[in-house]
Amino acid sequence: xxxxxxxxxxxxxxxxxxxxxxxxxxxxxxxxxxxxxxxxxxxxxxxxxxxxxxxxxxxxxxxxxxxxxxxxxxxxxxxxxxxxxxxxxxxxxxxxxxxxxxxxxxxxxxxxxxxxxxxxxxxxxxxxxxxxxxxxxxxxxxxxxxxxxxxxxxxxxxxxxxxxxxxxxxxxxxxxxxxxxxxxxxxxxxxxxxxxxxxxxxxxxxxxxxxxxxxxxxxxxxxxxxxxxxxxxxxxxxxxxxxxxxxxxxxxxxxxxxxxxxxxxxxxxxxxxxxxxxxxxxxxxxxxxxxxxxxxxxxxxxxxxxxxxxxxxxxxxxxxxxxxxxxxxxxxxxxxxxxxxxxxxxxxxxxxxxxxxxxxxxxxxxxxxxxxxxxxxxxxxxxxxxxxxxxxxxxxxxxxxxxxxxxxxxxxxxxxxxxxxxxxxxxxxxxxxxxxxxxxxxxxxxxxxxxxxxxxxxxxxxxxxxxxxxxxxxxxxxxxxxxxxxxxxxxxxxxxxxxxxxxxxxxxxxxxxxxxxxxxxxxxxxxxxxxxxxxxxxxxxxxxxxxxxxxxxxxxxxxxxxxxxxxxxxxxxxxxxxxxxxxxxxxxxxxxxxxx
Length: 596
Hints:
Blueprint: H1 8-35, H2 37-48, E1 49-54, E2 61-62, E3 68-80, H3 90-97, H4 103-110, E4 120-126, H5 128-136, E5 144-153, H6 161-164, E6 167-169, H7 172-177, E7 187-189, H8 192-196, H9 198-201, E8 206-212, E9 218-221, E10 236-239, H10 243-252, E11 258-263, E12 270-276, H11 282-286, H12 290-298, H13 320-329, E13 339-341, E14 344-347, E15 350-353, E16 359-361, H14 363-369, H15 372-382, H16 384-393, H17 415-422, H18 446-457, E17 461-463, E18 468-472, E19 479-481, E20 486-488, H19 493-508, E21 524-530, E22 538-545, E23 552-558, H20 564-595
Parallel strand pairs: 2-10
Antiparallel strand pairs: 1-8, 2-3, 3-4, 3-5, 6-7, 8-9, 10-18, 11-12, 11-23, 13-16, 14-15, 17-20, 18-19, 21-22, 22-23
């Protein structure tokens, strides 16, 4: 036997091995280059081409006269790609950014369930000097990058924090529900208009294709940007707000707690909207930290709480016009019916006091002088369930449907309500007495009072309250209006005339708000004082103007100050004056432009 190394058998085996290896290699090359060329080309492209998402600017807010209320401004945002990031540099980066220790690790841990190649936003609105320093030292900070983003700009003189609302980085729970629409790091409307009109405001994302090297650094654009997709800005909204009236309202509520809502009685458009105290929206524009939310939540004055739509109070004497309309419409009184006011009303063994001794008082005088005696008797004639029916007809005890995210129904007591609260047959007519002057269990929001004032101003007709008129198309800037349901109580105009005249005399006669009388604007209104068991009473005032052709209806509530005539009525007067003067100036400008 031939046992040498170069024997024929060994040469044959070696040749077979080499042949098989060569065949396999050739087949793999053929497979990669011919059969699966498309697949490997795509993978190669993925490794060399990077898609950069381009986020659209949110739509901006205009007031009713096309003045900017909320816009956008560019800012630098620092973000981290966890896959490339070295956590050892976090302490230095936190010091440079002015962040608390371990802030970066908390942010990364909070979003750890997502791909490590998706950027995590660390801080918005960083100073350019910091951007320059990071750029100079970028070799020390792998995975750290900055981008230019658009953030909200609130520098136009109107705060309206509860009306505008704010945006916040989308949380994990919402992201799972709305996958495909939003992605990690996106901002979404949380409160107010930002939330209600999110679908209009967010816009459509675009993208940019770039060629990157093995270190994921951009070398150039892909195909000169021909395959890029531009982002589509969100729709701009035209609000119903009048800037001048809003500014005056906000100024008058500085240092106070309460709310104000002004409405165009014919259209239901909100002209001014304040909940005080407000909060600083600029804090939410740059970063919505848990510390900011926590601080505002713990504030004893509750600045995050919308007092205009959520707080409920007894309406006090502002409700007396409704009682008068019910009595007139039901034939229980006429405009000539009188009650002899001797300083109060005796019911059983209890004497319910009035503000004074008014003598024989008809319905107009009862409104002008705010005579409790007249309405003590009237509410007993009306009865509880009939009273509850009319309260709801005028919008109390139910949501108005305003296009904001939060609203309270308030409370309108009925027989069923009293049966639940006191027990069946454990309450009686005596419980009704206080309802006639807007006290007791009856509780309303400032927004509901404003809608009520609009119904009084416009003879029982208005439109559902709303804060957005419509939107502007992207290219042509054509205005597209939104439609809102009408409100009609279907009560004869003649009864409104009687009640409205009483309101006119409240301000322009010898009534409780004569101190706000203006020489050139005829205001009709009604003061009210809401009893507060925890301190000073709340001041209320509802009004409309001008009397002959109402263009504004308003409700004002100021907490813990006392009488409506002293505190709420002057605020209403100043807001009414600001709005009507601004509209007069706009009308004059239109006339001059048409002449020229």
